[in-house]
Design goal:
Length: 79
């Protein structure tokens, strides 16, 4: 089951935006891109896993490196 734009929180949208612009990222790299003071690594990892469970991003070969598969944001460029 995919997520609708209404199911996404601000962090989800930022993760999707960064993956759209940068290709692949680990939760640790994503945390650095977002600004380390905003979120914990565990929370970023949790949100990335949720997006992965719903088929929007993929954990490449179970390495912890994620890439975009399907952008659920409206128009695929909403922030």
């Amino acid at each position: 089951m995919t997520l609708s734009p209404d199911d996404l929180n601000g962090l989800d949208r930022q993760i999707l935006k960064n993956l759209t612009e940068g290709g692949r990222a680990t939760p640790t790299l994503m945390l650095k891109l977002l600004g380390e003071e905003q979120y914990s690594r565990q929370y970023v990892n949790q949100r990335m896993k949720r997006l992965s469970e719903h088929g929007h991003i993929r954990n490449v070969l179970d390495t912890g490196v994620y890439e975009l598969v399907d952008d659920p944001r409206e128009g695929n460029n909403a922030e």
